[in-house]
Design brief:
Layout (H helix, E strand, L loop, with lengths): L5 E5 L4 E4 L14 H18 L6 H10 L5 E4 L4 E5 L13
Antiparallel strand pairs: 1-4, 2-3
The structure holds FE2/S2 (inorganic) cluster.
The site of FE2/S2 (inorganic) cluster has 13 residues, from helix 1.
């Protein structure tokens, strides 16, 4: 898994799926790995709930939101070399900030 930015050529009018979970082996693009990450995280979350280690509804909602990492679908508006995020933390995703 790479956490650095990726300089990639994107083509005008082509659809892309940028990886928002940072677990893809095909960075910066989605390869479906987010499904495995979500399944693993859901199991951990259920264990915490069963053990009463999550005390508030807000805490539960925050944990669920953190687990909601999905690809971002976008269409390139022009042929460019784009600087795409590789860490999944950019506030300007799919672009690096
Ligand atoms: S593999 Fe990361 S969002 Fe799909």
């Amino acid at each position: 898994m790479s956490k650095k930015q990726h300089l990639v050529k994107i083509k005008k009018g082509k659809n892309y799926a940028w990886c928002g979970c940072a677990e893809s082996q095909n960075q910066p693009f989605c390869d479906g790995s987010h499904n495995k990450v979500k399944e693993k995280y859901d199991n951990i979350l259920q264990t915490l709930i069963d053990a009463n280690l999550i005390s508030t509804e807000q805490e539960l909602q925050n944990l669920i939101a953190q687990n909601d990492k999905k690809p971002i679908l976008f269409k390139a508006e022009k042929d460019i070399e784009a600087n795409l995020c590789g860490c999944g933390q950019s506030e300007n995703a799919p672009y690096c900030n």
